[in-house]
Amino acid sequence: MSDMSPIKVFIADDHPILRIGLSMYLEKHDRIRIVGEADNGFDAVKNITETGPDVVLMDIDMPGLSGIEAIRVLRRTMPELIIIVLSTYTKKEFIQEAMSEGANGYVAKNTKIDELIKIIEDFAEGRPCLSPYLLNLSVKWQHEEDSEEGDRSQPLTKTEIRILRNIAQGKTNSEIAQINFVSIETVKTHVQRIFKKLDVGNRMEAVVAARERHII
Protein backbone atom coordinates (compact mmCIF):
# COMPACT_ATOMS: atom_id res chain seq x y z
CA MET A 1 0.00 0.00 0.00
CA SER A 2 1.28 3.48 -0.90
CA ASP A 3 2.11 5.82 1.98
CA MET A 4 -0.54 8.22 0.63
CA SER A 5 -3.30 5.66 -0.07
CA PRO A 6 -6.44 5.85 2.10
CA ILE A 7 -6.74 3.10 4.70
CA LYS A 8 -10.23 1.62 4.79
CA VAL A 9 -11.13 0.65 8.37
CA PHE A 10 -14.05 -1.41 9.69
CA ILE A 11 -15.00 -1.35 13.40
CA ALA A 12 -16.67 -4.34 15.06
CA ASP A 13 -17.67 -3.69 18.67
CA ASP A 14 -20.93 -4.08 20.58
CA HIS A 15 -20.55 -0.78 22.46
CA PRO A 16 -22.11 2.04 20.39
CA ILE A 17 -20.37 4.82 22.31
CA LEU A 18 -16.99 3.26 21.60
CA ARG A 19 -17.79 2.78 17.90
CA ILE A 20 -19.02 6.35 17.49
CA GLY A 21 -16.13 7.87 19.44
CA LEU A 22 -13.52 5.74 17.71
CA SER A 23 -14.93 6.52 14.27
CA MET A 24 -14.95 10.23 15.04
CA TYR A 25 -11.32 10.27 16.19
CA LEU A 26 -9.98 7.97 13.48
CA GLU A 27 -11.63 9.91 10.66
CA LYS A 28 -9.82 13.05 11.75
CA HIS A 29 -6.73 11.38 10.34
CA ASP A 30 -6.23 12.22 6.66
CA ARG A 31 -5.59 8.64 5.51
CA ILE A 32 -8.25 6.74 7.47
CA ARG A 33 -11.73 6.10 6.06
CA ILE A 34 -14.35 4.26 8.13
CA VAL A 35 -16.17 1.98 5.67
CA GLY A 36 -18.47 0.17 8.08
CA GLU A 37 -19.41 -0.85 11.61
CA ALA A 38 -21.05 -3.83 13.31
CA ASP A 39 -22.21 -4.60 16.83
CA ASN A 40 -22.07 -8.40 16.59
CA GLY A 41 -19.94 -11.07 14.97
CA PHE A 42 -22.50 -12.20 12.39
CA ASP A 43 -23.01 -8.71 10.97
CA ALA A 44 -19.28 -8.09 11.15
CA VAL A 45 -18.50 -11.07 8.91
CA LYS A 46 -21.27 -10.16 6.46
CA ASN A 47 -20.46 -6.45 6.24
CA ILE A 48 -16.69 -6.91 6.15
CA THR A 49 -17.08 -9.30 3.23
CA GLU A 50 -19.23 -6.74 1.41
CA THR A 51 -17.19 -3.59 2.14
CA GLY A 52 -13.69 -5.04 1.71
CA PRO A 53 -11.77 -2.97 4.28
CA ASP A 54 -7.98 -2.91 4.58
CA VAL A 55 -8.03 -3.11 8.38
CA VAL A 56 -10.60 -4.45 10.84
CA LEU A 57 -10.68 -3.43 14.50
CA MET A 58 -12.36 -6.43 16.16
CA ASP A 59 -13.68 -6.72 19.70
CA ILE A 60 -13.58 -10.20 21.28
CA ASP A 61 -16.73 -10.19 23.41
CA MET A 62 -19.68 -9.64 21.07
CA PRO A 63 -23.17 -11.20 20.96
CA GLY A 64 -24.02 -13.95 18.51
CA LEU A 65 -20.67 -14.74 16.95
CA SER A 66 -17.69 -13.82 19.11
CA GLY A 67 -14.76 -11.87 17.76
CA ILE A 68 -12.57 -14.99 17.89
CA GLU A 69 -15.14 -16.96 15.87
CA ALA A 70 -15.50 -14.09 13.41
CA ILE A 71 -11.74 -14.03 12.89
CA ARG A 72 -11.80 -17.78 12.21
CA VAL A 73 -14.50 -17.37 9.56
CA LEU A 74 -12.89 -14.35 7.90
CA ARG A 75 -9.50 -16.02 7.68
CA ARG A 76 -10.97 -18.72 5.43
CA THR A 77 -12.29 -16.28 2.84
CA MET A 78 -10.12 -13.16 3.28
CA PRO A 79 -6.59 -14.35 4.10
CA GLU A 80 -5.01 -10.98 3.27
CA LEU A 81 -7.33 -8.98 5.54
CA ILE A 82 -5.59 -7.20 8.42
CA ILE A 83 -7.44 -7.96 11.65
CA ILE A 84 -6.44 -6.11 14.81
CA VAL A 85 -8.19 -7.17 18.00
CA LEU A 86 -9.18 -4.18 20.14
CA SER A 87 -10.18 -5.49 23.54
CA THR A 88 -10.28 -4.91 27.29
CA TYR A 89 -9.10 -8.51 27.80
CA THR A 90 -5.35 -8.61 28.37
CA LYS A 91 -4.97 -12.11 29.79
CA LYS A 92 -2.37 -14.13 27.94
CA GLU A 93 -4.87 -16.89 27.08
CA PHE A 94 -7.21 -14.50 25.24
CA ILE A 95 -4.38 -12.88 23.31
CA GLN A 96 -2.76 -16.15 22.27
CA GLU A 97 -6.10 -17.62 21.18
CA ALA A 98 -6.86 -14.57 19.03
CA MET A 99 -3.41 -14.66 17.43
CA SER A 100 -3.55 -18.41 16.81
CA GLU A 101 -6.91 -17.99 15.04
CA GLY A 102 -5.41 -15.48 12.65
CA ALA A 103 -5.47 -12.01 14.20
CA ASN A 104 -2.61 -9.89 12.91
CA GLY A 105 -2.34 -7.84 16.07
CA TYR A 106 -3.84 -7.27 19.49
CA VAL A 107 -4.35 -3.84 21.05
CA ALA A 108 -5.66 -3.02 24.51
CA LYS A 109 -8.59 -0.59 24.62
CA ASN A 110 -6.65 1.70 26.92
CA THR A 111 -4.23 2.41 24.07
CA LYS A 112 -3.96 6.11 23.23
CA ILE A 113 -5.62 7.13 19.97
CA ASP A 114 -2.34 8.35 18.46
CA GLU A 115 -0.74 5.00 19.20
CA LEU A 116 -3.72 3.18 17.68
CA ILE A 117 -3.50 5.25 14.50
CA LYS A 118 0.20 4.46 14.22
CA ILE A 119 -0.51 0.75 14.71
CA ILE A 120 -3.18 0.85 11.98
CA GLU A 121 -0.78 2.61 9.61
CA ASP A 122 2.07 0.25 10.41
CA PHE A 123 -0.02 -2.83 9.72
CA ALA A 124 -1.47 -1.32 6.54
CA GLU A 125 2.10 -0.69 5.35
CA GLY A 126 3.18 -4.23 6.21
CA ARG A 127 4.99 -3.37 9.44
CA PRO A 128 3.57 -5.56 12.27
CA CYS A 129 3.82 -3.95 15.68
CA LEU A 130 2.58 -4.08 19.27
CA SER A 131 1.06 -1.48 21.53
CA PRO A 132 3.49 -0.33 24.27
CA TYR A 133 1.05 -1.67 26.87
CA LEU A 134 1.22 -5.20 25.46
CA LEU A 135 4.98 -5.01 25.10
CA ASN A 136 5.15 -4.37 28.85
CA LEU A 137 2.76 -7.26 29.46
CA SER A 138 4.90 -9.65 27.41
CA VAL A 139 7.94 -8.80 29.55
CA LYS A 140 5.86 -9.43 32.71
CA TRP A 141 4.64 -12.81 31.39
CA GLN A 142 8.18 -13.88 30.50
CA HIS A 143 9.38 -12.97 33.98
CA GLU A 144 6.52 -14.93 35.61
CA GLU A 145 7.24 -18.01 33.51
CA ASP A 146 10.95 -17.87 34.29
CA SER A 147 10.17 -17.49 38.02
CA GLU A 148 7.83 -20.49 37.97
CA GLU A 149 10.32 -22.76 36.21
CA GLY A 150 11.84 -24.45 39.27
CA ASP A 151 11.78 -28.06 37.99
CA ARG A 152 15.14 -28.58 36.33
CA SER A 153 14.26 -32.15 35.33
CA GLN A 154 12.12 -30.59 32.60
CA PRO A 155 14.41 -30.16 29.58
CA LEU A 156 12.41 -27.30 28.10
CA THR A 157 10.88 -24.20 29.66
CA LYS A 158 7.20 -23.35 29.23
CA THR A 159 8.13 -20.72 26.66
CA GLU A 160 10.28 -23.17 24.72
CA ILE A 161 7.51 -25.78 24.69
CA ARG A 162 5.05 -23.18 23.42
CA ILE A 163 7.46 -22.14 20.66
CA LEU A 164 8.11 -25.79 19.82
CA ARG A 165 4.35 -26.28 19.37
CA ASN A 166 4.34 -23.29 17.03
CA ILE A 167 7.20 -24.88 15.08
CA ALA A 168 5.22 -28.13 14.85
CA GLN A 169 2.34 -26.12 13.37
CA GLY A 170 4.68 -24.96 10.60
CA LYS A 171 4.86 -21.34 11.71
CA THR A 172 7.79 -19.12 10.70
CA ASN A 173 9.98 -17.21 13.17
CA SER A 174 8.12 -14.04 12.23
CA GLU A 175 4.73 -15.63 12.93
CA ILE A 176 5.97 -17.13 16.21
CA ALA A 177 7.29 -13.73 17.29
CA GLN A 178 3.94 -12.10 16.54
CA ILE A 179 1.92 -14.76 18.38
CA ASN A 180 4.12 -14.68 21.47
CA PHE A 181 4.73 -10.91 21.55
CA VAL A 182 8.52 -11.15 21.35
CA SER A 183 11.13 -10.10 18.80
CA ILE A 184 12.29 -12.38 15.99
CA GLU A 185 15.76 -12.41 17.58
CA THR A 186 14.24 -13.71 20.83
CA VAL A 187 12.51 -16.49 18.89
CA LYS A 188 15.78 -17.43 17.20
CA THR A 189 17.48 -17.62 20.59
CA HIS A 190 14.74 -19.91 21.95
CA VAL A 191 14.93 -22.12 18.84
CA GLN A 192 18.69 -22.55 19.24
CA ARG A 193 18.21 -23.47 22.91
CA ILE A 194 15.56 -26.00 21.92
CA PHE A 195 17.93 -27.56 19.37
CA LYS A 196 20.69 -27.76 21.97
CA LYS A 197 18.50 -29.27 24.70
CA LEU A 198 17.00 -31.85 22.35
CA ASP A 199 20.37 -32.50 20.66
CA VAL A 200 18.99 -31.90 17.16
CA GLY A 201 20.07 -29.88 14.16
CA ASN A 202 16.85 -28.61 12.59
CA ARG A 203 13.14 -27.96 13.14
CA MET A 204 11.92 -31.29 11.81
CA GLU A 205 14.27 -33.21 14.07
CA ALA A 206 13.17 -31.05 17.01
CA VAL A 207 9.48 -31.82 16.41
CA VAL A 208 10.17 -35.56 15.98
CA ALA A 209 12.30 -35.66 19.16
CA ALA A 210 9.70 -33.72 21.15
CA ARG A 211 6.90 -36.07 20.07
CA GLU A 212 8.97 -39.15 20.84
CA ARG A 213 9.57 -37.79 24.35
CA HIS A 214 5.89 -36.74 24.69
CA ILE A 215 6.86 -33.10 25.22
CA ILE A 216 4.27 -31.95 22.66
Strand order of the largest sheet: 2-1-3-4-5
Nearest-angstrom radius of gyration? 19 Å
CATH secondary-structure class of the largest domain: Alpha Beta
Shape: elongated
Oligomer: single chain
Q: How many separate domains make up the residues?
A: 2
Distance between the termini: 39 Å
Work out the number of β strands: 5
Question: Could you explain the architecture of this structure?
Answer:
There is one protein chain. The chain has ten helices and five strands, in the order βαβαβαβαβαααααα. It has helices at residues 16-26, 41-51, 67-77, 92-101, 113-124, 132-148, 158-168, 173-180, 184-198, 203-212, and strands at residues 7-12, 32-38, 55-58, 82-87, 105-108. The chain has a five-stranded parallel beta sheet with strand order 2-1-3-4-5, sandwiched between helices. The longest helix has 17 residues, at 132-148. It is elongated and about 55 Å long.
